[in-house]
Hints:
There is one protein chain. This protein is mostly helical. Helices cover 71% and strands 0% of the residues. The chain has five helices and no strands. The longest helix has 30 residues, at 17-46. The two termini are 18 Å apart.
Amino acid sequence: YEPVKRLISPNNDVLPLNKKILAGATSGAIGAFFTTPFDLAKVRLQTDLERKLPNTFVLLYRIGRDEGILRGLWRGVGPNIGRGTFTTAAQIPSYDHSKHFPVGTRLVSGGSTSTL
Length: 116
């Protein structure tokens, strides 16, 4: 999230909420894309009732070998990106924006004592 914010505002300007939401959505989409194989493995391990699968890395290897790298390991990447985009766009920017609100309105003074 922070690297994307710096790309949007290289001068470290205070970003408005809509640009923070854009940074959060972008970060969520990128994170969801790269973690999709692990999410797929987690779901398959959780549904493996017969306990045939020893661990995550063996499962990832088998999926890549049997189903293909892109078609197998990134199965469900679209919905996963959608989920990651919307949840991160809502959670991270709202926290980031709200933690600066008390300082910006002078309800509390800045510094480490006002860190949430």
